[in-house]
Amino acid sequence: MTPRQRGWRAALVALCGAWLAVVMGTVQAAPTIEHWTRPDGARVYLVPTDALPMLDLRLEFDGGSRRDPAPQAGLAAATALMLGKGTQAWGRAPERREDALAEAWADLGAQWSATATLDRFSIALRTLTRPDVLHAAVALLAQQLAAPAFDDGVWQRERQRLVAAWQQAQAQPEARAQRLFAQGVYRGHPYGREATPQTWAAIDGAAMRAFWQRHARVCDARLTLVGAVSRQQADALADTLLAGLAAHGCAPLPPVPEVEPLAQATQVREPFAGAAQAHILIGQPGVARRDPDHLALQVANHIVGGGGFTSRLMHELRERRGLTYGVYSYFVAGRHAGAWTVGMQTKPEQADQAVALIHEVLQRFTREGPTVQELAEAKRSLVLGHALKLDTNRKIADQVAALAWNDLPLDELSTWPARVQALTREQVMQAWRRVIDPQRLVTVVVGAAP
Questions:
Q1: Is the CB of residue 190 less than 8 Å from the CB of residue 66?
Q2: Which long-range contacts (CB under 8 A, 24 or more apart) does 31-35 make?
Q3: Which residues share a beta bridge with 280?
Q4: Closest CA to 374 of 387, 361, 359
Q5: In whole angstroms, what is the distance from residue 178 CA to residue 184 CA?
Q6: What are the beta bridge partners of residue 373?
Q7: What values do phi and psi take at 16, rounded to 5?
Q8: Contact 312/297 with Cβ under 8 angstroms?
Q9: Residue 202: Cβ-neighbour burial (10 angstroms; 0-12, 13-18, 19+)
């Protein structure tokens, strides 16, 4: 590191220290969460705030892609997509085709979305809390949840778009690298399944309807509300939103197996015609979100590759050798152990050198651990960043919904900074060495020079 770079780092550390007390004060005022379980089994998490006349709402079910049948990979995502493509008549509400449904939302000035991640099927709503708008928005969303059309004709059109995008992605080395990496890390686990034209062809409106009825279950729903509503109002909104789902019942869902640790290292190296850059992915299974070492691993990862320009990987591969514009690492932590991933791109002829350096950095960190300065800087940076995760109602809703989904303590957000600061070097390295083994990594290189 040059004297100028050391000067910038020292200035940054000083600035972080000066602001740390202010940020800690902000985070200590993390949202107070009210929580209760309704008679129907739905769990409600409420953060009342009258800062804005708005409501941010999240409704989540156990219906992520891990629940896709293997021959119908992509079913959860297709179901989420088609929730917005029209409704049947429900109660006094008329049938709404795709255009009419979009117009109804535009008239309200409200926003909604449906997404399926690895674990969760998530519904989001943002609306004014003015009574006429709020009640109309929740009623409209309730109709979509209770009576989605799942029209086969519309699905055929959307499926063609998905296939076209998939075919275009096959011309990108990045997509190939991601597929090979997922196969190597997950080895048949549902987390590693990929939707393809063949699996989309096996999906139709009946399959989506069956998936929705099985997984959109009131009995284990998580409902998060952040905004200018009271507990009484929140319960009334839940009544409306969940009314049409009660008929789905609560049949037990089969258990999903855990992601097994790697038994040995694997390497995959493929050429890719026309690739201007080699795409490198290195990693292995990490931990589930509820793992007691999750927080310590976030600190360790920040030092290794998650901290941007302050990370070891960035220093070694970009600053010292100019092999890449950027290198990163991160954990995906869900109900099961998602991947811990290191990723970067470099010139094809430099791929071997880059891979060797990544392995060297990981081995050295595992052997020696962080310096006192690295550990202190990582803690400061993470605490500062935590405050920025709670600076809007939308972000608070996302954080509380994640807390709810993972059954974490209600004080998870407010105690997070203090728990980060309390971590010792020994705790960080004990967690890292338990989970990350540099001798058992999946290494994928697509587009390297022959």
A1: yes
A2: 31/226, 31/390, 31/396, 31/400, 31/413, 33/400, 33/403, 33/410, 33/413, 34/231, 35/410
A3: 344, 445
A4: 361
A5: 10
A6: none
A7: -60, -40
A8: no
A9: middle
Strands 442-446 and 278-285: antiparallel
pLDDT digits (tens, 9 = 90+) for 357-384: 999 999 999 999 999 999 999 999 999 9
Provide the whole-model pTM: 0.92
Instruction: Give the model confidence (pLDDT) of 191-242 as tens digits.
Output: 999 999 999 999 999 999 999 999 999 999 999 999 999 999 999 999 999 9
Same fold, 3-29+259-446 and 34-248: yes
Q: What is the mean pLDDT of the chain?
A: 94
Q: Which residues contact 322 (CB under 8 A, 6 or more apart)?
A: none
Q: Residues 6 or more apart from 111 whose CB is under 8 A from it?
A: 105, 124, 125, 126, 127
3-state SS record for 177-188:
HHHHHHHHHHCC
Query: Is the CATH number 3.30.830.10 carried by domain 34-248?
Result: yes
Residue carrying the six token digits 């989001």: 124
Q: Where are the domains of the chain?
A: 3-29+259-446, 34-248
Confidence of residue 29 (pLDDT cuts 50, 70, 90): low
DSSP-assigned letters across all residues of 393-427: HHHHHHHHHHHHHTT--TTHHHHHHHHHHH--HHH
Concatenating the DSSP letter of every residue in 12-66 gives HHHHHHHHHHHHHHHHHTPPP-EEEE-TTS-EEEEEE--SSSEEEEEEEES-SGG
Domain 3-29+259-446: which CATH number of 3.30.1300.10, 3.30.830.10, 3.30.540.10, 3.90.550.10? 3.30.830.10
